[in-house]
Amino acid sequence: MARYYIVVYDVNEKRVVRVHKILKAYLQWRQRSVFEGWLDGNEVAELKRKLSRAINEEEDSILFYSLPSDSNLVTFHLGRPPDEFDNVI
């Protein structure tokens, strides 16, 4: 069963582009180091496997927050909307 995930990362700048590309293949990019979207169990396992190979576990951190599929997710935004940026470090 699919669940809704919010994924945030804090990785060394040498690995930001690679981590960003991996996450963008599975989830919707929201702002800076935040992604969100629906993933099933197989997708989560595959994503975790790819990210584990891309990071240095001694230096980097990636957090997964999951919500059950039957939850009503409500989001809102305050302030200036995030800019699309192509120059991910």
TrEMBL record:
<dbReference type="GO" id="GO:0004521">
    <property type="term" value="F:RNA endonuclease activity"/>
</dbReference>
<dbReference type="GO" id="GO:0016787">
    <property type="term" value="F:hydrolase activity"/>
</dbReference>
<dbReference type="GO" id="GO:0046872">
    <property type="term" value="F:metal ion binding"/>
</dbReference>
<comment type="similarity">
    <text>Belongs to the CRISPR-associated endoribonuclease Cas2 protein family.</text>
</comment>
<keyword id="KW-0378">Hydrolase</keyword>
<keyword id="KW-0479">Metal-binding</keyword>
<keyword id="KW-0460">Magnesium</keyword>
<comment type="subunit">
    <text>Homodimer, forms a heterotetramer with a Cas1 homodimer.</text>
</comment>
<dbReference type="Pfam" id="PF09827">
    <property type="entry name" value="CRISPR_Cas2"/>
</dbReference>
<keyword id="KW-0255">Endonuclease</keyword>
<dbReference type="InterPro" id="IPR021127">
    <property type="entry name" value="CRISPR_associated_Cas2"/>
</dbReference>
<comment type="function">
    <text>CRISPR (clustered regularly interspaced short palindromic repeat), is an adaptive immune system that provides protection against mobile genetic elements (viruses, transposable elements and conjugative plasmids). CRISPR clusters contain sequences complementary to antecedent mobile elements and target invading nucleic acids. CRISPR clusters are transcribed and processed into CRISPR RNA (crRNA). Functions as a ssRNA-specific endoribonuclease. Involved in the integration of spacer DNA into the CRISPR cassette.</text>
</comment>
<protein>
    <recommendedName>
        <fullName>CRISPR-associated endoribonuclease Cas2</fullName>
        <ecNumber>3.1.-.-</ecNumber>
    </recommendedName>
</protein>
<keyword id="KW-0051">Antiviral defense</keyword>
<dbReference type="GO" id="GO:0051607">
    <property type="term" value="P:defense response to virus"/>
</dbReference>
<dbReference type="GO" id="GO:0043571">
    <property type="term" value="P:maintenance of CRISPR repeat elements"/>
</dbReference>
<feature type="binding site">
    <location>
        <position position="10"/>
    </location>
    <ligand>
        <name>Mg(2+)</name>
    </ligand>
</feature>
<keyword id="KW-0540">Nuclease</keyword>
<dbReference type="InterPro" id="IPR019199">
    <property type="entry name" value="Virulence_VapD/CRISPR_Cas2"/>
</dbReference>
